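User: Some background: our group keeps a shared notebook of sequences we're curious about, and every so often someone picks one and asks for a predicted structure to add to the entry. Today it's my turn. The entry only has the sequence so far, pasted here. Could you supply the structure so I can complete it?
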Amino acid sequence: MQRLQLLKDTFFGLDVAQQQLIIGCAVAAAAAGGILTYAMQRSSKMRSIPLGEGWWGAGEKPLLEDQKIYPFTVETSDEEIEDLHERIDKTRFTDPLEDSGFQYGFNSTYLKKVISYWRNTFDWKKQVAMLNKYPHFKTKIEGLDVHFIHVRPLQSGDQRALPLMLVHGWPGSFYEFYKILPLLTQNHNGFAFEVVIPSIPGYGFSEAPHKKGFNSLAAARIFLTLMERLGFSQFYLQGGDWGSLITTNMAQMRPDCVKGLHLNMCMSNRGFKVLLSIIIGPYLPFLVGFSQEDVRRLFPFFQKNVWQMLEESGYLHIQATKPDTAGRGLNDSPVGLAAYILEKFSSWTHMKNRDLEDGGLERKFSLDDLLTNVMIYWTTGSIISSMRFYKENFSSNPNNRIDAKTGIFVPTGLAAFPQEILHCPKSWAQIRYQNIVSYTFMPRGGHFPALEEPRLLANDVIQFAKAIENL
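Assistant: Of course. Here's the predicted structure to add to the notebook entry:
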């Protein structure tokens, strides 16, 4: 309230010409927003994206494809662990600059500690047994062996089972959701979730595409086929990072099947409404649909949304242009792979972690959890194929794709975590997501909430489903 009063005092302290300019911009913004919303609703209402088709297996598409679902078990061997240790032992380290923290990337002083733990204490066989505590499966879809976990509710009886698919992003994996699984599958006063967690093709234990062009639309179609094959005609979806785009595409392709779409990362459309709200928002946020929390998270805009992104998006540019080159050294060096992946778990959890010598990694995560995620990339050799997903999705202007021009009309819930890389106000999200039934300012957490703040994320998903089910 004090900040709002200060903004009002600032406004009324301006001369008449300045006040008129701001009011004119606000009116223009409101008009433009109304026109944009009307145009989008008129052009895209009841529209859906065509499913399309694809074949990503090696060679020519056969006449028939095996559609059976097979159990899968994560395995390891002494030879695999010995090879890892030999490669770790041959690592060459470079001393960090004094007082550099994580500002130059993963600090090698702390990296030595992590690698020592990995080499001498981390028990991969124990973690493999832990991974296998949930049932794993594989099935062939569009030429690819698609890996997924399928976990039924912990209790039976009168409770309803609501199907829910959780989709990860980069540099995460299906393992991100292990801490949230027991929270979702328990009884919630009459219902529980039946959870399906696939690995994006090219990630972890899902086979990598053998042909060019595998983007989020292809992944969405494959995951829709997976849910159909499991017998689900209606289901919920949840995703962050790439998972948010894939699940959004699923909702656009089959809105009749998606009961609800829950996201912990949302990207807004660029446009006149967004531009003018950036100009007016710091001064008169209520005129452009901003809350005080939106103002706090968004501004100063260029510092938080331009300069910060320039500092943090170098990986994106190289992975979207030369993924095979970017991943080649990481595919052969476990220490390089760990540094590359874990640096994201540092800065994307909180940007202030870049000022710390240890990157703040163990403030939110255990080394066992972090290294288990790294080992999924290492043992499957999937870092290059995971990077290719950037190339395929940015091979053309994403704003010109059919999904960028199509609204989303399924019930949508958004969990806005304060340390997410970019903040998307509800007023921006509504440009594309036409049926937002819940928008929650989360009290803490960053880009990996399922691993960092599993209870917060689980509770928001549960409350979202209750609103849809009218429980």
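Suggested note for the entry: The first helix runs from residue 2 to 12. Residues 1-8, 16-44 have pLDDT under 50 and may be disordered.
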